[in-house]
């Protein structure tokens, strides 16, 4: 919508970004680097400190999408900045959703007051929309308060994610680049296989969605598993056993 040019760099490769900015930064008055905290498809994480260093050296803005990392990364679930030991003020724009960890609907942009005042008064997506329903705001606030009060939920989620990825890899399943937190793919490499696997898993009482091209490349088509703190170890083990049998 802004009309800005969007050059890309290799996934999570801060060195490639550094080289790209060294070549083109002088051609632009403003540059915004946009990355995700925990990637929604592969479940992998980047080195935030390296990206903060790059944005400072090249006088760029840095935006981080915390949609999948809030409530997941960091000892207390504060996201990728806690996970990487970076101060929140080192990132210019934090973006997130209320629809995952915070159990509601809608999203948010966070940053300095001066920055937030700009989209508040000028962003069409905000100006021509309606406010968040009070019930949704209350639900997300309650979820946030629960997250703060019960950090053991984050530790339990981490343990369940580690169990899932360890058992999946031991079963010979392809988990791609996942770090083993809340998002773990099982790569089938085939749209037909992914559809068949998802249907068979549903027959086993396990609900998992297939992710097809063009969301990912055909060779990277997968089932995408979401792990949560309320999953029991037995449920995870049963899922892997069923998947190993179905994927033969």
List key phrases describing it:
single chain; 248 residues; Aspartate Aminotransferase, domain 2; Aspartate Aminotransferase, domain 1; 2 domains; four-stranded mixed β-sheet; 9 helices; 7 strands; 13% strand; globular
What does this structure look like?
By secondary structure, the chain is an alpha/beta fold. It folds into two domains: 14-149, 3-Layer(aba) Sandwich (Aspartate Aminotransferase, domain 2), CATH 3.40.640.10; 152-246, Aspartate Aminotransferase, domain 1, CATH 3.90.1150.10. Helices cover 41% and strands 13% of the residues. The protein is built from nine helices and seven strands; from the N terminus they run αβαβαββααααβαββα. The protein has helices at residues 14-24, 48-57, 80-84, 113-122, 124-127, 134-149, 152-170, 191-203, 233-246; strands at 32-36, 61-65, 93-97, 107-110, 183-187, 209-211, 222-226. The protein has a four-stranded mixed β-sheet with strand order 1-2-3-4, covered by helices on one side. A three-stranded antiparallel β-sheet has the order 5-7-6, covered by helices on one side. Helix 7 (152-170) runs parallel beside helix 9. It is globular and about 55 Å long.
Distance between the termini: 46 Å
The 3D shape can be described as globular
Low-confidence stretches are none
CATH class division of the largest domain = Alpha Beta
Number of E strands: 7
Strand arrangement, major sheet: 1-2-3-4
Q: CATH-wise, what's the superfamily of the largest domain? A: Type I PLP-dependent aspartate aminotransferase-like (Major domain)
């Amino acid at each position: 919508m802004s009309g800005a040019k969007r050059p890309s760099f290799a996934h999570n490769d801060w060195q490639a970004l550094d080289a790209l900015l060294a070549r083109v930064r002088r051609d632009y008055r403003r540059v915004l680097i946009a990355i995700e905290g925990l990637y929604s498809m592969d479940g992998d994480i980047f080195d935030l400190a390296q990206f903060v260093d790059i944005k400072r050296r090249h006088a760029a803005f840095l935006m981080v999408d915390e949609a999948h990392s809030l409530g997941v990364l960091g000892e207390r679930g504060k996201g990728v900045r806690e996970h990487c030991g970076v101060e929140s003020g080192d990132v210019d724009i934090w973006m997130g959703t209320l629809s995952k960890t915070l159990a509601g609907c809608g999203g948010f942009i966070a940053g300095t007051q001066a920055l937030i005042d700009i989209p508040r008064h000028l962003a069409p997506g905000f100006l021509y929309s309606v406010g968040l329903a009070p019930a949704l705001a209350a639900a997300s606030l309650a979820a946030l308060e629960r997250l703060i009060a019960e950090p053991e939920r984050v530790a339990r989620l981490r343990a369940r994610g580690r169990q899932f990825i360890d058992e999946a890899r031991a079963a010979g399943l392809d988990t791609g680049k996942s770090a083993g937190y809340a998002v773990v793919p099982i790569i089938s490499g085939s749209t037909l296989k992914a559809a068949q696997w998802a249907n068979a898993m549903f027959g086993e009482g396990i609900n998992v969605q297939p992710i097809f091209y063009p969301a990912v490349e055909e060779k990277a088509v997968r089932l995408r598993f979401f792990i949560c703190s309320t999953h029991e170890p037995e449920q995870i083990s049963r899922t892997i056993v069923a998947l190993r049998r179905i994927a033969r």
